[in-house]
């Protein structure tokens, strides 16, 4: 067989979920409130107004804490994965999944984040999930932090701003490693660690109105704590689970110059380097000069303990994982037409079509990203999120979604081409293999799945799961390891 045209043997085909977007059961099994449980569904806000969707205040958190229902808080209900995980995993197995990426809801194990012992009911829930995956020979890939820190830590310490949160996260992670050791080899530390600047509350529990004046500095400080925590848990994971593999996780925001004008090119390069800075720290174990210079220029002072930089250097990751949805363009000129992206705007690219949510569809950008990341890091890569949010229609109990198949097909072809050029790609988990609650807008109607879930934005519906046309298409791709493309 001509190896140039196939994915590697044992390629980890699958899908990716986050606890707060699927589990529901927000107040069951001893779970504490998480930052996701206070995210309000803002029906009348433009879906491209990311800042407005992510906006949070002390008052809105207080109001949410007084509200005992899930009416305005879709992430409290998710898609009821907490009770339906066995049915859902059976559907993933039917598609032939080799891997499933999930996250552990920190506040299910440590309701306020500060307990010394884990909540056993929470631990047992994940053991049941891992047992189910094992039964179906599906490899778990587990994210420790995916937008769901305990709300109590956010309120008490302004999220990751205070250093003490590192200890709480390390304790939580150690429990995960010790208790889930028999099941889990692949771990990711922080989902899209770079997103802290785009939505500081979702990513790091920072409520902006509680911040001291210099927000840039506050966010960099919290980020530094996350980097140190990531390195410490990478160390612990390697110690506790021999042979384990730990990855960083980056939102890959590949950006093209809008024109070949040198100023567009220069601005674009800086933007791309600033995107790669996060994985640079976790792979190379040091802060790039570009960022250190920025701190100097903007009088940003990061509090570090003497051993912090040694910790970063000593415990780097084994592989790089990333999400890829769209590409952006950048221009040095003013007044350019903008296009939407994953909680970010960029200059509109005239060559690309967009999804219903305005994200520019760019399969070639995935190949560009793979080549760039592999060339830079020379470590295995895993695509742990990719997909398109779309409106689906149920007609006579069926969902015909050729647009989704087209999207995936085009992206898989580019992955294949990157592998043929020598990129060490070890896995691919599509985002939201089953419809789930949107992270950015809390909508259900922004559907990513191969499996439809009967629930609308207001939470009405039977929660019935229905296989879409794309379900059978992806099944075939996995069965043939991409040869049927
Ligand atoms: C990624 C997140 O940024 O994008 C996911 O890790 C999220 O949690 C996904 O769901 C898609 O974004 P959205 O806003 O369409 O749900």
Automatic annotation (TrEMBL):
Record EC number = 3.2.1.86, 3.2.1.-
Pfam families, alphabetically?
Answer: Glyco_hydro_1
How is this protein annotated for GO cellular component?
A: cytosol
Q: What does the entry give for GO biological process?
A: carbohydrate catabolic process
The record's listing under InterPro entries reads: GH, GH_1_N_CS, Glyco_hydro_1
For this UniProt record, the keywords arranged alphabetically read as follows: Glycosidase, Hydrolase
Q: Name one GO molecular function term.
A: 6-phospho-beta-glucosidase activity
**Organism domain of life:** Bacteria
For the protein in the UniProt heading, the enzyme class is hydrolase
* Family stated for the protein in its record: Belongs to the glycosyl hydrolase 1 family.
- PANTHER family xref list: 6-PHOSPHO-BETA-GLUCOSIDASE ASCB-RELATED, GLYCOSYL HYDROLASE
Q: Per its record, how is this protein called by name?
A: Aryl-phospho-beta-D-glucosidase BglH
Gene that encodes the chain:
bglH_3
């Amino acid at each position: 067989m001509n190896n140039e045209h196939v994915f590697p043997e044992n390629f980890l085909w699958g899908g990716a979920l986050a606890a707060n977007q699927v589990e529901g059961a927000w107040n069951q099994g001893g779970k504490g409130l998480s930052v996701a449980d206070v995210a309000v569904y803002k029906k009348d806000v433009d879906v491209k107004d990311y800042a407005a969707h992510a906006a949070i205040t002390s008052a809105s958190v207080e109001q949410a804490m007084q509200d005992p229902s899930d009416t305005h808080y879709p992430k409290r209900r998710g898609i009821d994965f907490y009770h339906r995980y066995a049915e859902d995993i059976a559907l993933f197995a039917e598609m032939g999944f080799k891997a499933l990426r999930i996250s552990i809801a920190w506040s299910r194990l440590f309701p306020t984040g500060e307990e010394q012992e884990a909540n056993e009911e929470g631990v047992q829930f994940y053991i049941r999930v891992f047992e189910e995956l094992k039964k179906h020979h599906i490899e778990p890939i587990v994210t420790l932090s995916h937008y769901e820190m305990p709300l109590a830590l956010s309120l008490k310490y302004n999220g990751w701003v205070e250093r003490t949160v590192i200890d709480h996260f390390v304790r939580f992670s150690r429990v995960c490693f010790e208790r889930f050791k028999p099941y889990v080899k692949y771990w990711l530390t922080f989902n899209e660690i770079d997103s802290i600047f785009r939505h500081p509350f979702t990513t790091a529990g920072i409520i902006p109105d509680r911040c001291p004046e210099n927000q840039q500095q506050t966010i960099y400080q919290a980020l530094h704590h996350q980097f140190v925590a990531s390195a410490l848990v990478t160390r612990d994971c390697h110690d506790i689970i021999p042979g384990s593999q730990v990855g960083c996780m980056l939102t890959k925001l590949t950006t093209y110059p809008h024109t070949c004008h040198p100023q567009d090119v220069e601005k674009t390069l800086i933007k791309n380097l600033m995107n790669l800075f996060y994985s640079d720290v976790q792979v190379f174990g040091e802060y790039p000069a570009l960022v250190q210079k920025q701190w100097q220029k903007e009088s940003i002072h990061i509090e570090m303990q003497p051993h912090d930089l040694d910790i970063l250097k000593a415990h780097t990751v084994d592989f790089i994982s990333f999400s890829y949805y769209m590409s952006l363009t950048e221009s040095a000129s003013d007044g350019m037409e903008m296009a939407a992206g994953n909680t970010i705007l960029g200059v509109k690219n005239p060559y690309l079509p967009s999804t219903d949510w305005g994200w520019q569809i760019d399969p070639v950008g995935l190949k560009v990203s793979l080549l760039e990341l592999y060339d830079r890091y020379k470590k295995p890569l895993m695509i742990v999120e990719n997909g398109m949010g779309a409106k689906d229609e149920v007609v006579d109990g069926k969902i015909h979604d050729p647009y989704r198949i087209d999207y995936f097909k085009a992206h898989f072809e580019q992955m294949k081409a990157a592998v043929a050029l020598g990129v060490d790609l070890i896995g691919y988990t599509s985002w939201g293999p089953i419809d789930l609650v949107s992270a950015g807008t809390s909508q259900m109607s922004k559907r990513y799945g191969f499996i439809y879930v009967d629930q609308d934005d207001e939470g009405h519906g039977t929660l019935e799961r229905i296989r879409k046309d794309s379900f059978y298409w992806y099944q075939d791709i996995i069965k043939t390891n991409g040869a049927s493309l």
